[in-house]
Amino acid sequence: MKLQVSIDLVSLEQALNLLKEVAQYVDIIEAGTPLIKQEGLRVVTAFKQAYPDKLIFADMKTMDAGELEAELAFQAGADITTVLAVANDATLSGAIAAAQKYGKSVTADMIGVHDRLQRAKELKQLGIQSLEMHWGLDEQAHHNWDFNELRVIKDTVGIPFAVAGGINETTINQVQATGAEVAAVGGAIYNATSPVEMALRLRSQISALSTV
Amino acid sequence: MKLQVSIDLVSLEQALNLLKEVAQYVDIIEAGTPLIKQEGLRVVTAFKQAYPDKLIFADMKTMDAGELEAELAFQAGADITTVLAVANDATLSGAIAAAQKYGKSVTADMIGVHDRLQRAKELKQLGIQSLEMHWGLDEQAHHNWDFNELRVIKDTVGIPFAVAGGINETTINQVQATGAEVAAVGGAIYNATSPVEMALRLRSQISALSTV
User: Fold this and answer.
1) Count of C-beta atoms within a 10 Å radius of residue A152
2) Do A65 and B8 touch (CB under 8 A)?
């Protein structure tokens, strides 16, 4: 399982300072949605320039203009961009077309989807390469993790997925046990007393469980 | 009815050049979602500085972190920010809290909502001040305008609304007849041979129909 750091800070300078500490322990660097909106896609360009060997994930959360927004993200240096799974199928197809053109990837963010299993099937049919099973910042206070649902979606639909939303030291092993390809961790790292120690501990927990 | 220009160009320079021509004929200047993501919220600041007497509309299309994203938009100079109507109620409530704090306004973008009448009722209950009845760029090829539905929502729920999505010279009178507070026009202005003439013609059509 890959470790992704989700940077929901809102200044590029803060983000780069955090990355100086934690980038060495992660596989994927995520420019969070509020960071992109505040600073623009230059944050993605700055991440790619500073860390060319890491995958750069632009959390665009695209709801419309799928092809245009995905192109903007890829042109800025993103390896992966996100489209909302609740978006119109034409928006998702537009983003997929852009990904094919640039040789990059689109993830559908499942935030706000009511019937996740049904939508996962439809998204696979549309050609989406991976899902982000995501409980939003505003949902986390109310949700209960349902790891079994993730296993059912994985077994039934057979599409790779990331898990995001409140993952920490206590839950990361359960996330890995669902068969997730990626654990995206935000606040548990950037709000930690020592972000670098937390990133190292999360990385070690993943390695300890991995068989490959 | 107010006229809003939706700027879905992707550079601040292009946007400011367009506004030099058309701002005089509009009431509300919208920074489109791709423009905000490409350039960052400095576009909103630039619009407000250049046109302090116009309302500045930040089409944030917020899906998560409602309070944070709305605060970022208001701090940048927006008078109005958007939250997706398909977002979690907690996200909408967070944005409403930020609007109350800053004395500004939140519009719920109805793109992607299946039962618009039901959701409009819920949004009014949550404290949303206005709706944007929106057919997205990716939907416009497929949708049929249903002006009657807008009248039903207006009469039943009694919440002010804007209409957006493919409005042009041919349809703006029908939009006004629904009782919309705002017509948001994008491509019909910025793709016109003469944007300034188109903005003037749209403005004249609205004035000709207005009784106040």
Assistant:
1) 15
2) yes
Contacts of B24 (CB under 8 A, 6+ apart): B199
CA dist list (Å): B125 to A130, B7, B110, B120, B121? 36, 31, 15, 9, 6
- Report the residue from B90, B94, B111 with minimal CB separation from A64: B111
Distance CA A183, CA A186 (A): 10
pTM for the predicted model, two decimal places: 0.96
Instruction: Give the integer Cα–Cα distance in Å for A181 and A160.
Output: 6
Contact status, residue B89 vs residue B98, Cβ threshold 8 Å: no
A70: nearest Cα among A41, A43, A47, A48 = A41
Tens-binned pLDDT, residue by residue, of chain A (212 aa): 999 999 999 999 999 999 999 999 999 999 999 999 999 999 999 999 999 999 999 999 999 999 999 999 999 999 999 999 999 999 999 999 999 999 999 999 999 999 999 999 999 999 999 999 988 878 776 666 678 889 899 899 999 999 998 899 999 999 999 999 999 999 999 999 999 999 999 999 998 877 54
Q: Chain B closest CA to A210's CA: distance in Å?
A: 32
Amino acid identity for residue B57 in this structure: F
ipTM associated with this complex = 0.96
Locate the domains of chain A by residue range. Answer: 2-209
Q: How far is CA A21 from CA A47, A76, A166, in A?
A: 14, 23, 21
Return the ∠ at Cα B211 (arms to B209 and B212), rounded to 5°: 125
| Protein fold of A2-209 | TIM Barrel (3.20.20)
Q: Which residues of B touch A60 (CB under 8 A)?
A: 37
